[in-house]
Amino acid sequence: MTRRLALLAAALLGSSALGACAPSTDDVPACEAGHRLALVAQTVPDAAYVPCIDSLAEGWSTQRFEANAGRTRFVLVPDRAGSRSVRVTFQPACEAGAGVPTTPRADGVRTSIELRSISPRYAGTLSDAFPGGCVTYAFDFPRGPHIGLMAELDATVGLFSRRQLRVELRDQLGVELGP
């Protein structure tokens, strides 16, 4: 991590600690070049993509954003899922599973879904695997609204190209994103 980005991350972490008393839905970075998305990118430095909030659907909120070396995690909470939430994890690789391939969410991404249950709840894990990284989405939705909730999940979390992030950070903020 370059010295500039390290200073940026330290300032960001310091400012977020000061605001920790106020609830926020802005903890998880939006799909636009910025300091918080750069911080997420640095947690898995070889990943071709970085997860972000593309469009937070009405009735959804974010919680428990954690960006650590080797992994970023956050929780999405839809208001129609009862007390259940979606646990999103960004890490260098996915565990090999019995997921069924589905429509890729971006170029060069292998998307799959593995269901643990379809009734009485629709529960499982959606995975996006790509060079250098993987994002998993562990969900558990009630039957009925699960179709709409899955569509909203798909629209909520985006995958931002690391290459694009690197260019935009340099051009807009003068920050170099390593590697």
Rounded average pLDDT: 83
User: What overall form do the CA principal axes indicate?
Assistant: globular
Catalogue the unreliable spans: 1-26
Q: In the CATH hierarchy, what is the class? A: Alpha Beta
How many domain regions? Answer: 1
CATH architectural name: 3-Layer(aba) Sandwich
Sheet with most strands: strand arrangement: 2-3-4-8-7-6-5
The largest sheet, given as strand count, sense and whether it forms a barrel, is: 7 strands, antiparallel
The helix/strand class is alpha+beta
Count of runs of 4 or more consecutive helical residues? 4
Looking at the structure, the CATH topology is Protein Transport Mog1p, Chain A
Write the element-wise H/E pattern from the N-terminal end onward. HHEEEEEEEEHEH
Number of E strands: 9
Radius of gyration: 16 Å
How large a portion of the residues is in β-strands, by DSSP E? 35-45%
End-to-end separation in angstroms reads 8 Å
Helix amount: 25-40%
Short synopsis of the structure:
By secondary structure, this protein is of the alpha+beta class. 27% of the residues lie in helices and 36% in strands.
List its traits.
alpha+beta, Protein Transport Mog1p, Chain A, two-stranded antiparallel sheet, 4 helices, 27% helix, disordered N terminus
